């Protein structure tokens, strides 16, 4: 995605990098159901190259091996649900085997990266230039999502264009539910799946809510509750809304690893492999025309 960064290194070991990562994204802040932290690797193995990616797919693991990475850092877990075999007959098994054979360690920062400050949603809010940021909601001492103010008010359509320009392009684009000409100023964001936060969004006073993985029934109900008004809803895609975090995590990790006694260097870069699962769409223009002709405030 971008150029590698570097930081002073010396006899850097995996345990040193893990300690730095977990100072930035503490494991105890992860949700109870989550599976984060070190998944594979010897804490004593040296680390000279670190690759970051959203998902630990086979293609990403191949990228790590080809680049000579010693550590792969991903946002999404490899083994979120219990497995009883790591045979190469399954994709999960093939991934574990490939990591071990290549000597590539794997560390995961998922919901602990979501609630970090800044975390996934904070980086997204910063990319949109939101000011006066505050949590969308809180759980204990952790902030969930972000709410902030645009530098200047915008039409909903103009805001959608701004969002699309800030995010990597995807096949699905940005889906919007609301009047294109409505003015918006206060924006709530939640990187990744967020249709369980509509109540928090209403309570926040946001004009528009940006998240991903929005399903038909929750969106329809939320729009009914809003009587066609605010908050408007935007589905910008799971991969797109979370991928911005990777470069920020890389930079923060390199800064955390800086040490004046280390003479050689550790490299870290974001994988160029896109793990967005969708490859193309059809009929999008027809859908837009249908909305404009039948319900100007409807879903596009």
Automatic annotation (TrEMBL):
Keyword DNA-binding: no
Annotated InterPro entries: DUF34/NIF3, DUF34/NIF3_sf
Swiss-Prot/TrEMBL keywords: Metal-binding
Gene3D superfamilies from the UniProt entry: NIF3 (NGG1p interacting factor 3)-like (3.40.1390.30)
Alphabetized SUPFAM superfamilies for the sequence: NIF3 (NGG1p interacting factor 3)-like
Signal sequence bounds: none
Domain of life: Bacteria
Family: Belongs to the GTP cyclohydrolase I type 2/NIF3 family.
Assembly information from the UniProt record: Homohexamer.
Protein name as annotated: GTP cyclohydrolase 1 type 2 homolog
Species of provenance: Terrabacter terrigena
């Amino acid at each position: 995605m971008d150029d590698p960064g570097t930081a002073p290194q010396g006899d850097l070991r995996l345990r040193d990098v893990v300690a730095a990562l977990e100072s930035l994204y503490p494991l105890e802040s992860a949700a109870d159901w989550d599976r984060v932290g070190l998944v594979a690797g010897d804490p004593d193995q040296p680390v000279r190259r670190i690759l970051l990616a959203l998902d630990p797919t086979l293609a990403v693991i191949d990228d790590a091996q080809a680049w000579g990475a010693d550590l792969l850092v991903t946002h999404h877990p490899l083994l979120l649900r219990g497995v009883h075999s790591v045979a190469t007959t399954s994709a999960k098994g093939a991934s574990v085997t490939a990591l071990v054979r290549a000597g590539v360690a794997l560390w995961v920062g998922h919901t602990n990266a979501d609630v970090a400050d800044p975390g996934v949603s904070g980086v997204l809010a910063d990319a949109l230039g939101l000011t006066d940021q505050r949590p969308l909601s809180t759980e204990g001492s952790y902030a969930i999502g972000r709410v902030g103010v645009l530098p200047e008010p915008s039409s909903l359509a103009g805001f959608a264009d701004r969002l699309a320009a800030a995010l990597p392009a995807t096949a699905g684009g940005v889906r919007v539910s609301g009047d294109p000409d409505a003015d918006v100023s206060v924006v709530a964001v939640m990187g990744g799946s967020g249709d369980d936060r509509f109540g928090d969004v209403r309570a926040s006073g946001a004009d528009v809510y940006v998240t991903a993985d929005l399903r038909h029934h929750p969106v329809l109900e939320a729009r009914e509750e809003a009587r066609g008004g605010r908050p408007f809803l935007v589905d910008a895609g799971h991969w797109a809304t979370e991928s911005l975090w990777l470069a920020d995590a890389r930079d923060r990790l390199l800064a955390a690893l800086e040490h004046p006694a280390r003479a050689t260097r550790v490299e870290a870069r974001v994988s160029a492999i896109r793990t967005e699962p969708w490859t193309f769409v059809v009929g999008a223009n027809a859908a837009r025309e249908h909305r404009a002709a039948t319900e100007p405030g409807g879903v596009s």
